[in-house]
Design goal:
Layout (H helix, E strand, L loop, with lengths): L2 H30 L4 H23 L3 H8 L1 H28 L2 H8 L2 H11 L7 H19 L10 H25 L4 H17 L14 H25 L5 H7 L2 H13 L6 H18 L6
């Protein structure tokens, strides 16, 4: 692997881990507080978006922040990416967690790598190789074992959670593919920051984030919110989208399979739930996936 690919690997794995942990933290917020999915998604997107644009303003080329809006084509693409990509990924995933649980939401979201590969094959942008088959199988089997411990009967899923979960997989596939052209023209901080702002503002029209009794929230709740906003949203999505500059959409989506691993480990050590034999096999599958993708790559 070259330096750029190593950087991409670090970014996507770190982002996936933070995103996985934030799902568990978000579920705890839904269970222990009056916070609901509309408020959480709108708030986390707006704050994280403002922070990302601020970081870019302070440390990078400032002209890009408004420059992206001066080009009509990129402006339209950014609005679509913010509403159909960013907001859809955030909302569908959180809605699936709220109606079901983080495990099922994550499992269903991991239909995305398969969707991406099928899409690229249909568009004749890639051919399906043995390596693709191996990585897809490792991702799906690893996720399944991690989240079910090898037993389908352990999944009891409300219809709403299933629907939102499948939509989450579709949204993640779109989010991953649609961002590539924008990233060739503008810095990832600008694209992700504005996308979060657009998504947050769009949802705020339906559910204003300021309509909540902030005094009723405990210190623990504020700490959970800080983690979800800073690490589970700002850093996770920034790192994920930044990785697309050195890895392909297919590789990025498959490597983000570390998300369910992070969710399960968090559940084991934080919520004190047992980690079964098949879950360890799932862990081995995810590690195997990383080893396959980080080995000397053939042209896809």
């Amino acid at each position: 692997m070259n330096t750029a690919e190593k950087k991409g690997l670090f970014l996507v794995t770190t982002g996936a881990i933070f995103w996985g942990i934030s799902g568990t933290v978000s579920k705890k917020l839904f269970q222990q507080t009056t916070i609901e999915v509309n408020w959480l998604v709108a708030t986390r997107l707006l704050i994280a978006g403002i922070l990302l644009l601020t970081v870019h303003f302070l440390f990078k080329e400032r002209s890009q922040i408004l420059g992206v809006w001066k080009n009509k084509r990129s402006a339209v693409q950014l609005i679509i990416f913010g509403l159909v990509g960013m907001l859809s990924v955030q909302y569908t995933y959180m809605a699936s967690i709220q109606h079901g649980n983080a495990a099922v939401a994550t499992l269903l979201q991991y239909l995305a790598p398969v969707m991406i590969i099928i899409y690229l094959i249909l568009r004749k942008q890639m051919t399906f190789t043995r390596k693709d088959l191996l990585t897809v199988l490792l991702a799906l089997v690893g996720c399944f074992l991690l989240l079910t411990n090898g037993s389908v009967s352990q999944i009891s899923v409300p219809t709403a959670a299933m629907v939102w979960g499948v939509l989450s997989g579709i949204a993640l596939a779109f989010y991953t593919l649609y961002a590539v052209p924008l990233l060739k023209q503008y810095d990832s901080l600008v694209i992700v920051g504005w996308a979060m702002m657009i998504g947050g503002l769009g949802l705020s029209l339906i559910h204003p984030p300021w309509q909540i009794d902030f005094k009723s929230l405990s210190i623990e709740t504020y700490l959970y919110l800080i983690f979800v906003i800073l690490f589970g949203t700002m850093i996770a999505f920034w790192f994920y989208i930044e990785s697309l500059q050195s890895l392909s959409p297919k590789e990025t989506s498959l490597l983000s399979s570390l998300e369910p691993l992070a969710a399960v480990i968090t559940t084991v050590f934080w919520l004190k739930e047992p980690f079964g034999f098949f879950q360890w096999l799932g862990t081995a599958c995810i590690i195997g996936l990383i080893l396959v993708l980080t080995s000397s790559k053939k042209a896809s």
